[in-house]
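User: Sequence for ATP-binding cassette domain-containing protein below. Tokens please.
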Amino acid sequence: MSFDISVVKRRGDVLVAGNVAGGEGVTVLFGPSGVGKSSVLDMVAGLLRPDTGHVRVGGETLYDDSARIDEPAHRRRAGYVFQDARLFPHLRVAANLRYGERLAAPADRWIDFDTVVAFLDIERLLRRWPATLSGGEARRVAIGRALLSAPRFLLLDEPLSFLDHARREEIARVIEDVRDRLKLPILLVTHDRTEAERLGTRIVTM
Ligand SMILES: Nc1ncnc2c1ncn2[C@@H]1O[C@H](COP(=O)(O)OP(=O)(O)OP(=O)(O)O)[C@@H](O)[C@H]1O
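Assistant: Structure tokens for ATP-binding cassette domain-containing protein:
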């Protein structure tokens, strides 16, 4: 499964240009704040329409302005983990996870609830409210919700930001596990070079 992305989008005064060619593992989009990394993830997810370009994942065209293809977000099968987790505050952890599961067509599901809970070691969090979670716990739950939506690939926006050293290490290991055990292709955004070098199978600089 590979990423073949070439998108251009004007955002205010900034011209965002993202070009990514990458296969298995973790493809890191690396660059300074404001260059447009999150905008590229949004364009891959189908949350932001490029001015021009194409987005192909695993040979499937999700967006191509010249061919007039623009798959809606819910059909792209991207598991998007936002920088701020964006858990639903009015749902307990278990219900947040079930929400992800309900997004997936039953035939597409490749991992079940109990496996995700064990994989991420979040059993003890299931009855908690999002507001009571630490940053690292919330990020685990957000990754779990994304995995349960039966994604073909993951989009991770600054997954280690705002965490202390020990929590960064834990989430880095979770990402390595998703890469190595679940073999899910990942497009990961970061402005941190150490993080890029640790997690990236390849690094694309913006
Ligand atoms: N709705 C908007 N209207 C105008 N400009 C915007 C809008 N959203 C983002 N921008 C601008 O587009 C540029 C790219 O933003 P984006 O968040 O994609 O960058 P980034 O590289 O992910 O930065 P960061 O690491 O700080 O999140 C920034 O200069 C930002 O100010």
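The helical segments are 37-45, 73-76, 93-103, 113-120, 135-148, 165-180, 193-199.
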